[in-house]
Amino acid sequence: MSASDTGDQRILLIDGHAMAFRAFFALPADGFSDGRGQATNAVYGFTRMIINVVASEKPTHVAVAFDLPGGTFRDRIYDQYKGGRDETPPEFVGQIDLIMQVLDALGVRWLTVEDYEADDIIASLAHRTATEGGEALIVTSDRDAIQLVGESVTLLQPVKGVTEMRRMNPAAIEEKYGIPPERYSDLAALVGESADNLPGVPGVGPKTAAKWIVQYGDLPGIIAHAGEIKGKAGQSLRDHIADVERNRLMNAAVLDLELPADPEHYTLGRGDGTVLNALFDELAFGPTIRKDVPADFLAGGADVPQAPARELPPVQRPASAELPELLTSAFGEGAALASDGSWVLGQGDLRRLALATDDALAVLTLADLDDAAERALAAWLEDPEIPKSAHDTKNLAHQARGRGLRIAGWRTDLAIAEFLCRPDQRPTDLAGLTLRHLQEDLQVEAAAAQQELDLGADDGSDAEAEQLGRAADAVLRLERLLRSELEEHAALSLHDDLELPLSAVIGELEATGIAVSDDVLAGLDQEHATKQTEVAESAFSHLDGDRINLGSPKQLQEVLYERLGLPKGRRTKTGYSTNAETLVDLFEKTQHPFLADLLAHRDVTKMRQIIDTLRRFISPEGRIHTTFHQNIAATGRLSSNNPNLQNIPTRTEEGRRIRSAFGNSAGYHALLTADYSQIEMRIMAHLSEDAGLIEAFRSGEDLHRFVASRVFDVEPEEVDGAMRSKTKAISYGLAYGLSAFGLARQLHISQGEATALRDGYFERFGGVRDFLRESVEKARATGYTETILGRRRYLPDLTSDNRQRRENAERVALNSPIQGSAADIIKLAMLRVDELLREKELTSRVLLQVHDELVMDVAEGEEAQVREVVTEGMGSAFELSVPLEVGIGVGPNWLEAAH
DNA sequence: CATATAACGTA
DNA sequence: CGTACGTTATATGC
Q1: Buried-most residue among A38, A114, A661, A732 (CB within 10 A)?
Q2: In this structure, is residue A648 part of a structural domain?
Q3: Is A543 contained in some domain?
Q4: CB of residue A728 closer than 7 A to nucleic acid strand C?
Q5: Domain membership flag for residue A472
Q6: Nucleic acid strand B within 7 Å of A573 CB
Q7: What is the CATH number of the domain that holds A653?
Q8: pLDDT band at A1 (very low <50, low <70, confident <90, very high)
Q9: Distance, CA of A218 to CA of A222 (rounded, Å)
Q10: Which NCBIfam families match (predicted)?
């Protein structure tokens, strides 16, 4: 049967741009990406829409019309046409082209006509179809199409998003607007269309316009009788007749465009399933949308070939006796690993391990292995020539460590690889990664597979093994995908040569942990507890003994600003701030004794809190094993948690005392701290190549004194404390994208003074100013910032129309190369220090990293050598144009190891 | 019971 | 209205 008999024609006409744009805003741009940074949300939404409409409306023919860039004849009539529109969002760019590719694969004709809009194409085709006795369905959110609706032309208006449509036939139009569709252009001319920048008659909305149309027949009738219309609206109409006539001219659809006339041209059913599938692969579209593509699109009504679900090799559960042979035969070339185990308080436990290759899948239950089998497994795991990958290699190694197994030959850490490609994304577990990149739900897949197994013969398999096997198989496929992505992001070397080897080093130091004295902490806690009661009682005494909750900002607001009537200061989202800065200001103003007690209470409470947290994490062996994460901080720094050992107090005397609890490992002689002196400013000097700053570091003079002497134009020895601290604040502030406002607030000086200070700084250190400006410009052009090792951070917001977002991204762009390069350097240093310790066969070991500092256990008699190791390892980690200086301190504990 | 907010510790 | 984090207690919403 051919649909070329026009009487049977049922043509679907879609406004490509209007619907793509709608899809773009209906779906999150950051939730749909092809994995290469191209957003695909509009493509996905549009595809979804056309699939749904074809499935439900069953058209015989389809055409999609697009606007062309550049003007149309309407712009020549009215130069403000469609003026005042926002710029195209950057994520939308490129999606129209992709939609056209999808349409080609679906075998759907798409059309453009120079000098005309998509509307005109649709109008012409609809008109012709109707004339020839066929039927047309128009899909667009553009209201100009309402005028086209007729007996055989129906409009489908998107209601919500792009998949829900409202059918508009003449009756529906009449009901909604009170006029028939052919009069809608008259109504629109009177009311105006803000989207097209066509102002109508002020004070006249659809109701008034419809009333006039009913009364006078049509627009010419209204204009002819304009003089009779009473009231404000009538006057307004008379004052804007010219606008109305222009609008009517502009909104009239063109019905006679020359377009391919043969209905055959638009016939549905010329799509190519293979091409479509390949394109969906490229777009990273999942299996769901493929399944929903109606066969009507494809030549011969074929089904869309489904991306074949991966046929998993059978899950083997080898007996001990079979394992050695299996490891060499099936997994001799390496495997993807997934495990079921734990690592808590330095205690690891690996229960099950799944191994996957393309052809084999095995799940081992460690407790079931006999000695020979376990030895074979140990040898396989330890073999550095057998490549292995896992979602979180360090964690798997920790679990294995609990069984006395160590793993060598790591090839890819999926979590790290994912992070290097998308540093600003929140980390996700393996199931999340699988969903994101393979569009498969591990849990669902495993459950479905298990059901099939259950129906078949019982082969001793179980649901958990099935799930673990699926996980290992996912690791296998993700590994390939992510390695190619690493290449695309120029991050393969960062993964292979920096982060992955580093994860092994970090694993060692996490497993080692740091000795912490519970007794010392208990003593401190006791002191603070006494003090806490004291200041709390004193605080309550100033409130007529009212025992409010001093830890509740809400209650404090009530007390401070209502009851005591103190002057309100800074605002928070929900009320007035009660933070320390505000309280100190308030105390200086009012000298109210409650404030002093409250501040003291805050301090002492915070201390107790920190102490309490630390104590909860002390293992039975008296050590704290923090976890360092390599995939959290977008700049490339490590982060530490459970507990965080990178924020142990150091600024106040009281706080520092906590550090005295850290140290004295049995068998070790002392603690050593080694830190980089002003590493971020050195990186600034290196990157900016500012002659003055480089000289500052080469002169050996105190940095801030040197810089201050230049800024204030005095001899270095004349620099006083105020000058030095102001200069220091600017130096560091610059690397954070500090504003004059922020600087003024921090230094308690006027904004004018702050501006002058900054200008003076930039005048003497012009290279810094140029560097900062250029690095933002470069990031805007490339879309990302880069560290000295090429670690990228993508900042799409640099081109945002939203000022707040854009300026925030600019500050991030200033800071990331600096903070990130410092992170790169200390990571290199950790690798180097680890290597040197091995070379020299020292027992001393690294315990902690605190961004620019390493904390080490020094073994008896090794202090001199360890000093050499850190001086060399940290000092020569990376060659900058200024020296890297390392400060070293040694003492019985972390407090006394300061320098 | 889970999430949000304000606060505050570090580099 | 400077960057990067983690933890906590309180308050709020389900």
Answers
A1: A661
A2: yes
A3: yes
A4: no
A5: yes
A6: yes
A7: 3.30.70.370
A8: very low
A9: 6
A10: pola (TIGR00593), PRK05755.1 (NF004397)
> Number of folded domains in chain A?
5
Q: By the 8 A CB rule, do A370 and A396 touch?
A: no
Q: Is the CB of residue A853 inside 7 Å of nucleic acid strand B?
A: yes
Residue with tokens 């390599």: A630
With a cut of 50, say whether residue A221 has pLDDT above it.
Answer: yes
Closest CA to A884 of A677, A583, A611, A590: A677
Work out if A627's Cβ lies within 7 angstroms of strand C.
no
Residue type, A3: A
How far is residue A217 from each of residues A179, A185, A208, A222, measured CA to CA in Å?
Answer: 10, 13, 14, 7
Q: Which of A386-395, A432-441, A482-491 has the lowest mean pLDDT?
A: A432-441
Beta A410-413 vs A388-390: how paired, if at all?
A: parallel
Widest distance between CA atoms in chain A: 108
Q: Quick one: which residue's CA is nearest to C8's C1'?
A: A609
Give per-residue pLDDT as tens, A289-335.
787 888 888 887 666 655 556 779 999 999 999 999 999 999 999 99
User: Considering chain A, what percentage of its residues have pLDDT values greater than 90?
Assistant: 63
A32 with A92, same domain: the answer is yes
Note whether A665 and A700 are same-domain residues.
Answer: no
Confidence (pLDDT) at A2 = 42
Q: What is the mean pLDDT of residues A724-746?
A: 90
Q: What is the pLDDT of residues A31-57, one digit of tens each?
A: 677 766 788 888 988 998 999 889 888
Closest by Cα among A857, A896, A463 to A656: A896
Interatomic CA–C1' length for residue A554 and nucleotide B7, angstroms: 12
Average pLDDT, chain A: 89
- The reply to whether A755 has its C-beta less than 7 Å from any atom of strand C is no
Q: A426 beta carbon < 7 A from strand B?
A: no
Q: Are residues A173 and A292 in the same domain?
A: yes
A383 by Cβ neighbours in 10 Å (0-12 / 13-18 / 19+) ranks as middle
Amino acid A631: pLDDT? 95
pLDDT of A4 higher than 70: no
Quick one: tokens of A309? 């679900």
Above 70 in pLDDT, residue A267?
yes
A640 strand B contact, CB < 7 Å: no
Given this model, what pLDDT does residue A663 score?
93
- What does the alpha-carbon distance between residue A600 and residue A224 come to, in Å, rounded to a whole number? 83
Closest-lying nucleotide for A577 based on CA to C1': B6
Of A562, A588, A617, the residue at which a domain comes to its end is A617
Left (φ > 0), alpha (ψ -120 to 50) or beta: where does A147 sit? Answer: alpha
| Strand runs labelled E in A171-279 | 192-193, 198-199
User: Does residue A457 have a pLDDT over 50?
Assistant: no
**Identity (one letter) of the amino acid at A560?**
L
The tokens for A669 are: 């002689």
Query: Which residues face A135 on adjacent strands?
Result: A10
pLDDT(A506) > 80: yes
Q: Which nucleotides of B are covered by protein (CB under 7 A)?
A: 5-11
Q: Render pLDDT for A643-685 as a digit per residue (tens, 0 to 9).
A: 999 999 999 999 999 999 999 899 999 999 999 999 999 999 9
Q: Which residue has the tokens 């496929």?
A: A477
Are A749 and A857 part of one and the same domain?
Answer: no
| CA gap A640, A827 in Å, rounded | 15
A418 in any annotated domain? yes
Q: Indicate if CB(A574) is under 7 A from strand B.
A: yes
Which residues span the domain enclosing A223?
8-301
In which region does residue A654 sit, left (phi positive, over 0), alpha (psi from -120 to 50) or beta (all else)? alpha
Query: Strands A347-356 and A335-344, how do they pair?
Result: antiparallel
